[in-house]
Design brief:
Elements lengths: L1 H31 L3 H10 L5 H10 L5 E6 L10 H12 L4 E2 L8 E5 L12 E4 L5 E5 L4
Parallel strand pairs: 1-2, 1-3
Antiparallel strand pairs: 3-5, 4-5
């Protein structure tokens, strides 16, 4: 009985392993052609979000920051609205900073097509991405 169970287990590994190795090989060929910037921005751009915006945020968010995402209300896809999409990528892209859901707990507000002045919070610094309504507004040090 042990021999049969072992044989079935090995057959299963062999059967599914080929699929996994083919997928890993295809992914390696795809991503090997990416530049360093493309690799870093891939979590955003593969989700149809602008990677350069997350670079702008990342340059201004520090270890220990507690981030509040202020995002223009909008639909985005079948399963996520725009806020959820920005926050989902931001939680990964901006590690080790952590997301908070209450601006009173935040050290920094990241605004995407939204005006941080509407939160009625006093900011110690604020940076805007060119003329775009994209802001990093620091409330206090982390």
């Amino acid at each position: 009985m042990v021999a049969v169970t072992t044989a079935v287990a090995l057959l299963s590994v062999w059967h599914s392993g080929g699929h996994v190795w083919r997928r890993l090989g295809a992914d390696e060929r795809t991503y090997a052609a990416y530049t360093n910037d493309q690799r870093r921005q891939a979590p955003a751009t593969l989700g149809s979000l602008p990677g350069d915006v997350f670079d702008f945020y990342a340059d201004r968010v520090h270890r220990g920051d507690r981030v509040y995402f202020l995002v223009m209300p909008s639909g985005f896809g079948r399963y996520f609205d725009l806020h959820d999409s920005i926050a989902r990528v931001g939680r990964f892209y901006l590690l080790p900073a952590a997301e908070v859901t209450d601006v009173r707990d935040a050290t920094v507000v990241l605004a995407y097509y939204a005006d941080p002045a509407g939160l009625h919070v006093r900011y110690v610094t604020q940076a805007q991405a060119g003329q775009q309504p994209i802001y990093v507004s620091r409330i206090r040090a982390p």
